[in-house]
Amino acid sequence: xxxxxxxxxxxxxxxxxxxxxxxxxxxxxxxxxxxxxxxxxxxxxxxxxxxxxxxxxxxxxxxxxxxxxxxxxxxxxxxxxxxxxxxxxxxxxxxxxxxxxxxxxxxxxxxxxxxxxxxxxxxxxxxxxxxxxxxxxxxxxxxxxxxxxxxxxxxxxxxxxxxxxxxxxxxxxxxxxxxxxxxxxxxxxxxxxxxxxxxxxxxxxxxxxxxxxxxxxxxxxxxxxxxxxxxxxxxxxxxxxxxxxxxxxxxxxxxxxxxxxxxxxxxxxxxxxxxxxxxxxxxxxxxxxxxxxxxxxxxxxxxxxxxxxxxxxxxxxxxxxxxxxxxxxxxxxxxxxxxxxxxxxxxxxxxxxxxxxxxxxxxxxxxxxxxxxxxxxxxxxxxxxxxxxxxxxxxxxxxxxxxxxxxxxxxxxxxxxxxxxxxxxxxxxxxxxxxxxxxxxxxxxxxxxxxxxxxxxxxxxxxxxxxxxxxxxxxxxxxxxxxxxxxxxxxxxxxxxxxxxxxxxxxxxxxxxxxxxxxxxxxxxxxxxxxxxxxxxxxxxxxxxxxxxxxxxxxxxxxxxxxxxxxxxxxxxxxxxxxxxxxxxxxxxxxxxxxxxxxxxxxxxxxxxxxxxxxxxxxxxxxxxxxxxxxxxxxxxxxxxxxxxxxxxxxxxxxxxxxxxxxxxxxxxxxxxxxxxxxxxxxxxxxxxxxxxxxxxxxxxxxxxxxxxxxxxxxxxxxxxxxxxxxxxxxxxxxxxxxxxxxxxxxxxxxxxxxxxxxxxxxxxxxxxxxxxxxxxxxxxxxxxxxxxxxxxxxxxxxxxxxxxxxxxxxxxxxxxxxxxxxxxxxxxxxxxxxxxxxxxxxx
Length: 844
Known about the structure:
The protein is mainly β and 844 residues long. The protein has 14 helices and 56 strands.
């Protein structure tokens, strides 16, 4: 009997070990954290009247009593804020009433911790919004008295901003040694919709809704937004705020995520007290309904990357139920109205190190996380790569198509019966979005893997603000989440037990209690891996992490080196630092000045030697085929090059759009180009050029021109899909060959000269992409056999009648047998190789 019980006991222990996950949710009865952001609607106060009604509250984490343990402060919209003091071992005490931090009045949003008066104690700044009474919208600054009590002094300090505030960040933008303040504000619902007034709204100033920059002058703050270049219009709906030295010049820059129609702002610090918004120069496109954000080095190259959240659902069902899916007509209207390129999905902007970013969110697998709020990059499993947590959910989904239909029906009923609409009844019919949070593991290869359930984040609830911190001082990062209408969540990180990974904490505050440490950078080299972090506490959504920097170092027992770069540029280096330790660098010990990289001159510069612009027809392919994955009318332009007038200089032919003739430019001796304006090309301007190539078609020693016709704008077998062959008279005068080509009206995509039959003249492979209006049906590609005189015949015996949607091809002797082979690529097809063999090709 004893043996049996012993075996069962072993099995029980084994099962417990096997089931232990990276994160473990701790019950509120154990932690003592009972805060609940309860939000109630009624006929007057609801999400229909205020679309940010269920945006939720934030979390601020920091050691407010200087006892070495991280404390937690939650913001509540309609309820009082709460401060919980960390007593150790995940035990917390609510001291809100004693501390004077309830802030019960007004609608509270973002919370920030910072040592505003540089006395060595963390103060707390609370943002407020929503209320029509501007007095109840005044932001609040609670100064820490050093005895677990706080005094509200926002008006005295000059930071009682009474706009509609989402969040705020303290940082030293002018590098004068004190903390300045950026307050993120948002506009009103009447400016949020999509209307023909957008152009006017973009020009209309709205200082009540503008985000604000406050300069600290010896403890008194003043609004310098106008002079500093902060955008001022009524379309600014700031939801995300992140501060970082994005261009690595030693000065803090600011990224603002904007909801609704207005694009995001990327403010680069001009180092003279002003900022320049460079979002259009730096990025190709941004999120449309931008929400929370984070800035972190996700690929360990030492450059800060930018991540913004949006609302694109993960599942196709949710996409179809959502009314917020991308609409090309809206996209085009916004572009024509002067807005930046925007799309409704998360965006990961990879820093290229030259002032530009490459957006790779879809490549990384983190673009679709539904109605998301907080994005936090941190190394949760300690392997040396920053993972990603995304909070998710919304109490009432007013974009749901079924709900919108219900609302229309109710409005129709009210009009017919003459009775008013029951807003309370309508609000009660709104569905809730509760799809769960997301947790992604960084694989270190520009991809992320979803690990939500495997890592223990399995329960679904509506989450808003979130923060990470080492709450139990065991070296790994725990999670705190402010939820909607539920008790706040604390997750313990078990990686110290499961992965046995090493960590390094860099505590900048301990040895520098009265210095500005925001903006300090740390570079860690360990095990052949480099990691970069910047101390910027405000991140995610309405939240703040004023906690030590945390680096995972996997199984390394000793860290090769740690470099600290202070905000003023002073730097120091530590070598052979033991893992599982806390580094506490002193500013006074920094002797060197860090040398930021010198601007690299580009290899190329724009010459302006050629005056031509491709002019595609303005169209919307989605109206013809709703389920197209993308537009196909905008594939051009391509070009061909060759010495067509035999003067020893290369000339170029630029493919024209529909109703735009292709253009032949002859190169001049000074490197400039002259437009030949050939009449043959003018006559064929109704075609759409897809590709072109110069080659000697008729064997007379000069270069002739073959142009592929194609495009999505035509009907199947339209005569304008016929390719063209232009014969050169030797002096760059081209005439169209009437009988040289077979009558084949297919939508082509590419052309490649190739002597497939070895008769010393060039034949042509012509790839076709699709039948216009019938995606993804493709037409057969062609092999046009040359008789040596410029007359071509389609050889239909070749093995590519069902090749699929061809995009491009290359001729090359792949197997080195003296005959050209063909490599072909296309959509939804593998890379294919056709080996040339005795007047035919063999599909390999």
